[in-house]
């Protein structure tokens, strides 16, 4: 038993560390945009921050499919299903996300003005926001393809490939940002348009490379017939797992979007500060995200093999590691708040507000860890509905409802909002903890008991 536990820990590390580095690089991709735009204009940062809230929410529509794909693919691999079944799953997932991506790109191109008006975007931000959303949002179809490729490659355990791809994307993005934002080497100074263009070109490059690796190295026998012949059973399985699985993420993202709208009624400085904080905080919880995703891959395989007890202990082991790291980082960042904000801006109002909110965030981060790790493990087991129910109830009553009361009614402003968000994370996190302990997730996997085999 001890040797099996050690092997699981080794596999977790092998899968997780590339995800961790990849996530850091992805965060850097967004933060470099914010950093460079901060040198261009604080208003540009606020404008792009609002658009990124919209983009992140729309990205979660693709997660409906990719979540289901990752869960089922991991279970198929654990149960040693045939390549034919896996390729049918991949083809179905890719076609659905292509349709989603095309429709969303078209909607953004046609109705971006109305979307920004609904978000109550301030006049100071409107021009920048409009420029950014049309370019980045207009190419959402690229993101749809990328998320599909990434979900399958990770399910097979080739997480380092995603990491290397993201690294090169970052290099491209930084170079293109420098050239296009500030107009270097004879190029025009495009500001926000330049940042959006650089981000989009980098993503296109990443998509091409990931697609090449998936279909040449991992699934070399994949052909166009898997794109033409959609397996209705797989569509049902993907949606059965993916819709509830993504539902919690979608609810969270929409709730965050609403809190951003609330911020627009507080002050422009609050909106800009929130953009900076969102980019700072992702570096705090990136380890938790990585270990959560790595754990979900292994838990899915263990469930596919029928090793539910190993899956049970792996989740708690991962939770302990993520909790310690996120707590330490949250406290450290709070202590260095003003210095960190000084990297991005010299605006005194933003510096003071940001430093205050980071102290609240130090309490929020440990609670967030419970949700990231345990919910990912629950999804990997097929227990996808319970997190959605709890998430919707908590996010909208505590995360949004109390956020409005604290920030507007009680006039606590942005710190009051973040107190409510921290309360929401802890309430949901503790409920998820007891859900995992109850083992009610056992037996909810797509793979039937007859298909489960002993591990080798």
From TrEMBL:
Main location: membrane
GO cellular component, one term: plasma membrane
Compartments in which it is found: Cell membrane
Protein's name in the database: MATE family efflux transporter
CDD domains referenced in this protein's UniProt entry, alphabetically: MATE_like_8 (cd13134)
InterPro entries per UniProt: MATE_fam, MdtK-like, YsiQ
Taxonomic superkingdom: Bacteria
Lineage: Bacteria, Bacillati, Bacillota, Clostridia, Eubacteriales
MF term (GO), any: xenobiotic transmembrane transporter activity
Membrane topology: Multi-pass membrane protein
UniProt entry keywords in alphabetical sequence: Cell membrane, Membrane, Transmembrane, Transmembrane helix, Transport
Pfam family, one: MatE
Keyword Lyase listed: no
Spans traversing the lipid bilayer: 12-37, 57-77, 89-111, 131-149, 161-183, 195-215, 250-270, 276-303, 323-344, 350-374, 386-410
């Amino acid at each position: 038993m001890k040797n099996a536990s050690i092997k699981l820990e080794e596999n977790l590390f092998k899968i997780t560390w590339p995800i961790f580095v990849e996530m850091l690089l992805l965060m850097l991709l967004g933060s470099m945009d914010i950093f460079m735009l901060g040198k261009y204009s604080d208003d540009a940062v606020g404008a792009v921050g609002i658009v990124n809230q919209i983009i992140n929410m729309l990205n979660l529509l693709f997660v409906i499919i990719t979540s289901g794909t990752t869960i089922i693919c991991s279970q198929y691999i654990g149960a040693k299903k045939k390549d034919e079944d896996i390729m049918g799953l991949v083809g179905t997932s890719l076609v659905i996300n292509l349709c989603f991506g095309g429709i969303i790109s078209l909607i953004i191109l046609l109705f971006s003005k109305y979307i920004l008006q609904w978000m109550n975007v301030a006049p100071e931000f409107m021009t920048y926001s409009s420029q950014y959303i049309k370019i980045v949002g207009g190419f959402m179809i690229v993101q749809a393809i990328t998320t599909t490729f990434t979900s399958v490659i990770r399910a097979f355990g080739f997480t380092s490939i995603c990491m290397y791809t993201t690294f090169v994307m970052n290099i491209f993005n930084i170079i293109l940002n420098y050239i296009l934002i500030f107009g270097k080497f004879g190029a025009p100074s495009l500001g926000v348009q330049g940042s959006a263009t650089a981000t989009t070109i980098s993503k296109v490059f990443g998509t091409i490379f990931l697609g090449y690796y998936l279909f040449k190295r991992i699934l070399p026998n994949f052909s166009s017939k898997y794109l033409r012949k959609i397996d209705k059973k797989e569509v049902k399985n993907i949606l059965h797992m993916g819709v509830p699985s993504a539902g919690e993420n979608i609810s969270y993202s929409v709730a965050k979007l609403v809190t951003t709208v609330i911020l627009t009624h507080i002050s422009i400085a609050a909106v800009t500060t929130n953009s900076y904080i969102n980019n700072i905080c992702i570096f705090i919880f990136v380890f938790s995200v990585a270990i959560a995703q790595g754990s979900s891959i292994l838990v899915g395989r263990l469930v596919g093999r029928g090793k539910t007890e190993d899956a049970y202990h792996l989740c708690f082991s991962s939770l302990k590691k993520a909790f310690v790291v996120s707590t330490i980082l949250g406290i450290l960042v709070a202590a260095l708040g003003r210095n960190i904000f000084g990297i991005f801006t010299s605006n005194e109002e933003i510096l003071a507000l940001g430093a205050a909110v980071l102290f609240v965030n130090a309490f929020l981060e440990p609670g967030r860890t419970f949700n990231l790790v345990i919910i990912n493990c629950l999804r990997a087991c097929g227990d996808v509905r319970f997190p959605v129910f709890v998430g919707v109830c908590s996010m909208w009553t505590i995360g949004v409802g109390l956020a409005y009361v604290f920030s507007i009614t009680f006039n606590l402003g942005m710190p009051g909002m973040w107190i409510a968000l921290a309360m929401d994370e802890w309430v949901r996190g503790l409920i998820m903890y007891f859900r995992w302990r109850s083992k009610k997730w056992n037996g909810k996997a797509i793979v039937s008991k007859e298909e489960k085999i002993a591990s080798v």
